[in-house]
Hints:
The chain has helices at 2-15, 28-52, 58-91, 98-115, 125-146, 153-182, 185-214, 218-240, 249-261, 269-290, 297-309, 316-333, 336-347. It is mainly alpha-helical.
Amino acid sequence: xxxxxxxxxxxxAREEPVAPSIGIxxxxxxxxxxxxxxxxxxxxxxxxxPGMRGIASQRAMDATEIVASTLSYTFAAxxxxxxxxxxxxxxxxxxxxxxxxxxxxxxxxxxxxxxxPAVVQRLHTAAALALAIVASIIAIIASAATIRxxxxxxxxxxxxxxxxxxLLRPIAWEVTAIAGERASMGLYYTGRGLATFAxxxxxxxxxxxxxxxxxxxxxxxxxxxxxxxxLAFVITYFAARDGSDTPSTLEAVLHGSLSxxxxxxxxxxxxxxxAEFLVxxxxxxxxxxxxxxxxxxPVLAALALALLSHGAFDVxxxxxxVTAAAQWAMLAMVDDRSMWTAMVSARE
Length: 348
């Protein structure tokens, strides 16, 4: 009789297999490295190189652009590798619904295909708009899944807000351009309103990420997050300062870079300054994220890559960054180590 019970138990075990646990610890180092390279690429390619044109010597400009290009191509290669690895892991992650992971893998492939031509040429306006829409869909799919789980709730919320910003930003640009062609004030104000809402979403996502990082620990979290916000404010102040004296080279470079990175000009000067402030703030907070130790690397790197995307998905590198962030946030959602770490942190 005992043998019969054991036989029935083994039959049930064979009939109802348990989904294997997902272990993504192998990718922790690659994720952190990608986030660091991405932050360095944005420092040289967004904060320094654009503002040096017409100010620095030709030799300095060439050297800076070589460094920025090298970091950008390295960042792109790492992101594509992470997306390929993430697609493989999602394909065998049975703890995630088939619809969610299947749609994310399929749309991620479409995003990589749309961003690939940017390696050799500038994307056409229609292609950039399509890329922004596809990347926003990827972020929305991941946000809807990860926001329901404790260890990835903040990453999911950040992805969702950046998705709205990434969707509205190119639409605002297109509406503003059409308004200029047709001399329509109604379309012009509509475009600026959409751009304003996009900046508000960027701001809320950045503030949420900063607040969450500040609660991870006293020194690595609170001090570094506050320091990143203060340093971003100082950078924006020097870039926006309008004094009677001739501005220094640093001020001129920062002013030229941040004014280009802010995008569509907003109806209020204060919002324009906020848009400029968010550029260095997201870069610095991404470095703060990867510096944490109390949270598993996949969660931190997903947050860092989401911050580096800046909610501007019409830029190919940003679209690839948010795609990688979305994939690995979903994998971190079902990672056993991430789950237990979140439970221990909550209990403490």
